[in-house]
Amino acid sequence: MEKIAFLGLGRMGLPMARRLASAGHALTVWNRTPGRAEELPGAADPAAAVRGAGVVITMLSDPAALAAVARRFAGELVPGTVWVEMSSVGPGAVAEVRRRLPDGVGLVDAPVLGSVGPAASGGLTVLAGGEPVDVGRVRPVLERLGTVVDCGGPGSGAALKLVVIGAVIGGVAVVAEALALARSLGLPEELAFGALAGGPLGGVVGRARATDADFPVRLAAKDLALAGGGPVLTAVRERLLAHPELAEQDLARWVDAVRAG
Asked: What is the pLDDT along the chain (261 residues), one digit of tens a residue?
């Protein structure tokens, strides 16, 4: 197995890197804050991490973090390397990265759907966009992390991630408002939950009540900002930002706050 460099060991990156290491991949990791994964071979900086790697994976928090880290290692990439960008940064940031790639270096945008549990177990959904030859090259790596959905050409994975995550966050907000309405009308909470769960919003209700997910409210607001300025999602984002005390809490905790009034 060729060497993999994994940059970004946050909530999602760390279990993903550990899963790749457990499959026998030669792995070198880097994280802005040292010490996140002492059991994995680490590098002092991004440039050192990617040297000699055939596949480079980035899993970073936002477009600014991606741009800052990319400046530190892009010049070290050699022809034949494939960079897999798995952060939720939107197609614009992916296009900017592509413009800065050295000749002969491939890029696959492959953001994921799922939380920390599926990241550790290989149960993620991986939305892969890129040239077919590049996606084919890294498919065995991505399949170790989850089910790969072929989205099309460069940027299509990043674009579909915004579509799906916008719908999920918007749906969770609708459930939160519906539960607040039920409370104001004097209905038992479990009665309202059951009625909603039995209808077309069933999946979203499950996410709204999740206890094992770790998708911070601040990242949900970031993703909605990347999705653009539609009136509904803009309003949802403003509601998310109205609870700064929950910024690092999972989205379900925001639902708790809304339904409690």
From this structure: 789 999 999 999 999 999 999 999 999 999 998 888 788 999 999 999 999 999 999 999 999 999 999 999 999 999 999 999 999 999 999 999 999 899 999 999 999 999 999 999 999 999 999 999 999 999 999 999 999 999 999 999 999 999 999 999 999 999 999 999 999 999 999 999 999 999 999 999 999 999 989 999 999 999 999 998 789 999 999 999 999 999 999 999 999 999 887
> Any residues with CB less than 8 A from the CB of 48 and at least 6 apart, and which?
30
Split into its structural domains, the chain has a count of 2
Which CATH number do you get for residue 44?
3.40.50.720
Whether 100 and 181 map to the same domain: the answer is no
DSSP 8-state symbol, 218: H
Task: Provide the whole-model pTM.
Answer: 0.93
189 and 148: one domain?
no
Rounded Cα gap, residues 138 and 109, in angstroms: 11
* Separation CA 178–CA 180 (nearest Å): 5
Which DSSP symbol is given to 211? Answer: S
**Which are the contacts of 55, defined by CB distance < 8 A and separation ≥ 6?**
2, 3, 4, 5, 81, 82, 83, 84, 137, 138, 141
**Do both 138 and 201 map to the same domain?**
no
Give the other-Cβ count within 10 Å of 127's Cβ.
Answer: 25
- 128 and 171 assigned to the same domain: no
Of 152, 181, 207, the residue that ends a domain is: 152
> Domain range holding 240?
160-259
